Amino acid sequence: MKFPIFHHPSSPPSVKALGLLRSALSEPFPPGKGPLPLSFNLEVVEAPPTKDQLEHANLQNIVDLGREKPNTFKWPIVVDWNAGKACIGDADGVKGILEHLRQQRDGEVPKE
């Protein structure tokens, strides 16, 4: 499962979200409770998503903003393409996406 984070290294929430994702790959998840790390292919992209990735022409303004003024763009963007879930600018949103992956791993919800 490909799991991108559209990351900006000078954004504290983006750095925090990337740390959460990397920890979920290398340590039991949830922390202190989980039996195993999660399994997904983390892709770190230090650029905003492309228009094609967003699959909606009305979101071109967001793409342009990310390119032209990256410090005003709300980083990070973490996307679970398979589940159709995303979080923008919120490291805590990453926890929800990781929890969904844990539920899939543990058979609590069907895999997508």
Automatic annotation (TrEMBL):
GO cellular component: mitochondrion
InterPro entries in UniProt: Fmp46, Thioredoxin-like_sf
Keyword Mitochondrion recorded: yes
UniProt keyword annotations, A-Z: Mitochondrion, Oxidoreductase, Transit peptide
Gene Ontology molecular function, alphabetical: oxidoreductase activity
Entry superkingdom: Eukaryota
Subcellular location: Mitochondrion
One Pfam match: DUF1687
Cited function: Putative mitochondrial redox protein which could be involved in the reduction of small toxic molecules.
Family to which the UniProt record says this protein belongs: Belongs to the FMP46 family.
Protein name listed in UniProt: DUF1687-domain-containing protein
UniProt organism field: Mycena sanguinolenta
Lineage: Eukaryota, Fungi, Dikarya, Basidiomycota, Agaricomycotina
